[in-house]
Amino acid sequence: MLITAFLAALVALVLTMIGIPRFIMFFHKKKLGGQPTLEEVKQHASKAGTPTMGGLVFVVSALLVSAVFALTFGQFTPMFITAWWVLAMYALIGFLDDFMKVFSQKNHGGLKASHKLIAQIATGIVSYLILMQVDSTNVLNILGWKIDLSWFFAIFIIFWLVGWSNAVNLTDGIDGLASITVAISLSAYAVIAVAQGRYDVLLILLSVIGGLLAFFVFNHKPAKIFMGDVGSLALGGFIAMISILLHAEWSLLLIGFIYILETVSVMMQVSYFKVTHGKRIFRMTPIHHHFELGGFSGKGKGWSEWKIDIVFWTVTAVLSLLALLIYFNI
């Protein structure tokens, strides 16, 4: 099954490589507006008009490929269905948000925050119900200690999915950052899936990784396309559910440290701004923009997007390795 999973990744990679150029051509042919750029970050001016919603291609590719392989090779299990469901539904939420921003003549702001949150919570509830068909113990694994949360486990799942989906969404702010960061994170979980013999989970994991690697070919600086909410929300919810399915929820605090950093920087900025009536801690948040505008201190020479990418990828890779070391030595 390991070879089969890698074959699925290859097929997803090829489909995404074929699909992205055609998606870009569609955007240009229809003269559709791209993802809005940030006026505060002058170096982003050149990004104006760049097509968005590229996540639709790699997510659909991963969903189709993994489903076909799972059905063909007997891996269409409740655990596979749960991971597939979360990826599909969070992608749908992101798609509706992106679609309204790009195509709607009346609502360029996308989905209302309340509507988006309700949809994310509803997906979490259904995910819990599906998951209970696999394991009805409601147990949370923290570094080997198993804690029975009873029905509070449903609340945990909702919080986990919503929180991480929005965290990855915040990370998707510069060329190539989210695509490779998430690919590294998912690779760590692929190792755990192999160790557990969960080839059903591995199948969809590698399908997503294959799609992400192909997407990066067109998303690295200078990006020809952005993934949009359809990609980032889906990836965040997906990685959260994978950590639950593999009973390694704690590991996401290390593997997903960058997503936490991005989210906390926004929370700190907003809170400090309100308390001090206009003062800021960072030049701009999420924190990758702080580094863009003034380096680590915020007052020096701004980092290039490539430098930010490499630093964030390296941190994710190192902490993912640390998480794996802890996991295999508990």
Automatic annotation (TrEMBL):
<feature type="transmembrane region" description="Helical">
    <location>
        <begin position="6"/>
        <end position="27"/>
    </location>
</feature>
<keyword id="KW-0961">Cell wall biogenesis/degradation</keyword>
<keyword id="KW-0133">Cell shape</keyword>
<feature type="transmembrane region" description="Helical">
    <location>
        <begin position="225"/>
        <end position="246"/>
    </location>
</feature>
<keyword id="KW-0472">Membrane</keyword>
<keyword id="KW-1003">Cell membrane</keyword>
<keyword id="KW-0460">Magnesium</keyword>
<dbReference type="InterPro" id="IPR003524">
    <property type="entry name" value="PNAcMuramoyl-5peptid_Trfase"/>
</dbReference>
<keyword id="KW-0573">Peptidoglycan synthesis</keyword>
<protein>
    <recommendedName>
        <fullName>Phospho-N-acetylmuramoyl-pentapeptide-transferase</fullName>
        <ecNumber>2.7.8.13</ecNumber>
    </recommendedName>
</protein>
<feature type="transmembrane region" description="Helical">
    <location>
        <begin position="117"/>
        <end position="134"/>
    </location>
</feature>
<keyword id="KW-1133">Transmembrane helix</keyword>
<feature type="transmembrane region" description="Helical">
    <location>
        <begin position="201"/>
        <end position="218"/>
    </location>
</feature>
<feature type="transmembrane region" description="Helical">
    <location>
        <begin position="177"/>
        <end position="195"/>
    </location>
</feature>
<dbReference type="GO" id="GO:0016740">
    <property type="term" value="F:transferase activity"/>
</dbReference>
<feature type="transmembrane region" description="Helical">
    <location>
        <begin position="252"/>
        <end position="273"/>
    </location>
</feature>
<comment type="function">
    <text>Catalyzes the initial step of the lipid cycle reactions in the biosynthesis of the cell wall peptidoglycan: transfers peptidoglycan precursor phospho-MurNAc-pentapeptide from UDP-MurNAc-pentapeptide onto the lipid carrier undecaprenyl phosphate, yielding undecaprenyl-pyrophosphoryl-MurNAc-pentapeptide, known as lipid I.</text>
</comment>
<keyword id="KW-0808">Transferase</keyword>
<dbReference type="InterPro" id="IPR018480">
    <property type="entry name" value="PNAcMuramoyl-5peptid_Trfase_CS"/>
</dbReference>
<feature type="transmembrane region" description="Helical">
    <location>
        <begin position="48"/>
        <end position="70"/>
    </location>
</feature>
<keyword id="KW-0131">Cell cycle</keyword>
<dbReference type="Pfam" id="PF00953">
    <property type="entry name" value="Glycos_transf_4"/>
</dbReference>
<feature type="transmembrane region" description="Helical">
    <location>
        <begin position="149"/>
        <end position="170"/>
    </location>
</feature>
<keyword id="KW-0479">Metal-binding</keyword>
<feature type="transmembrane region" description="Helical">
    <location>
        <begin position="310"/>
        <end position="328"/>
    </location>
</feature>
<keyword id="KW-0812">Transmembrane</keyword>
<keyword id="KW-0132">Cell division</keyword>
<dbReference type="InterPro" id="IPR000715">
    <property type="entry name" value="Glycosyl_transferase_4"/>
</dbReference>
<dbReference type="Pfam" id="PF10555">
    <property type="entry name" value="MraY_sig1"/>
</dbReference>
<comment type="similarity">
    <text>Belongs to the glycosyltransferase 4 family. MraY subfamily.</text>
</comment>
<feature type="transmembrane region" description="Helical">
    <location>
        <begin position="76"/>
        <end position="96"/>
    </location>
</feature>
<comment type="pathway">
    <text>Cell wall biogenesis; peptidoglycan biosynthesis.</text>
</comment>
